[in-house]
Amino acid sequence: MQKKIDLIQVVRGVGALLVCSFHMKTLLNTPTFAYGSFFFGSGAIGVPLFFILSGFIIFYTTQNSARSVTYVRIFALKRIVRIVPLYYLVTLIWIVGLGQVGYYLARRPDLLLSALTFVPSFTSTVGPSFGFPPVAIGWTLAYEMLFYLIFCVSLFFGKFRYAVLSLLIVSIVVGLPFLVGASVNFDASHAYGFSVRYLEVMASPVMLYFLLGVLLGWIYQSSFAIKSHTISFLMVGVSLVYFWLAYFGIGHLSNNIFANMLSCGALLFSLLMWHKNRPISFFKPLVYLGDISYSLYLVHPLVIVFLPKILRSVGLASLANGPVLFVLAIIVILLISAISYEFFERKMLSRISRAIV
Questions:
Q1: 162 falls within a domain
Q2: What secondary structure does DSSP assign to 140-166, as a single string?
Q3: Residues with Cβ within 8 Å of residue 127, at least 6 apart in sequence
Q4: For range 177-205, the mean pLDDT
């Protein structure tokens, strides 16, 4: 098994915190200045980062895998164990905690079924979510699961798996629109109007983020390297400046699929090249933040909704709003995420994962 790259873990952790802060940004806004919207209004960039990192990690961890039905089965089961149980648990807590059991079981079981099978509800024509599941952040997992499915198919092609994976994703994103006589649209919010609605997900340009991650993984593991420390340092500096310019919308840098791929991809490429040439040491809590990032990603909506309710119910309504709530929520999210990671992901799910090998 490949050793984890601390750099990737840190970026995952930062990405998760950006998404978390994005969903709480209004707590930091004041009548005189919208601090939260200014600092975290583009925090959703953490989602493209996650998708790119997923592609990278899949490449990095499967290079020496065998071409066999057994390996594909184990890979698929491990991905399911990694993603599904915690998501189901968070969804259950959400529905029960908000008293929505009757709604989802009696009135709209179709919405619950969509959420549990990682298929958008298509209650909206706006992509890339096409209708949110009960825990809204779960829309991103539909793309994760689709990527894993396509990757499972590519595994049967042995050493050509990544070429096949790339060909499949590009062919789907570029080719499917022709089924309805449309031109390719790289706006993630666009809908083509397929009669088979799931094709909207398959044709979404969001899938290109995963492909970029695979490309970065291939470059990182190849013999290509930038030996000059000065050039590596300058690349990191320039990519960081560009990323933050794009993040804050300075210079009218557009916010679309290719702009996100450029800003995130350039930053990750430069960091990986620097790390490859001279491994970067990170503060261990930052690495651990990456370890708990999946729990953090799924848990934070629960805390955002339930923490204010709990504070008000115990007579601490003064703490249930504004910057104080923002800080308290971050602390609680980190604590619960660490507990979830240690006792649910590491212990319980690891045992299940080992049992299926």
A1: yes
A2: HHHHHHHHHHHHHHHHTTGGGHHHHHH
A3: 188, 189, 190, 191, 200, 204, 206
A4: 94
Assess if residue 92 is contained within a domain. Answer: yes
Tell me, yes or no, whether 1 lies in a domain. Answer: no
Q: Determine, yes or no, domain membership for 69.
A: yes
Exposure letters 200-214 (e unless 16+ CB within 10 A, then b): bbbbbbbbbbbbbbb
Averaged pLDDT for residues 24-52: 96
Domain count, the chain: 1
Q: How far is CA 32 from CA 28, 42, 318, in A?
A: 11, 20, 21
pLDDT at 357 over 70: no
Parent domain of 267: 6-355
Q: Is the pLDDT of residue 99 over 70?
A: yes
329 and 307 in contact (C-beta within 8 Å)?
yes
What's the whole-model pTM score? Answer: 0.95
The pLDDT of 240-245, averaged and rounded, is 93
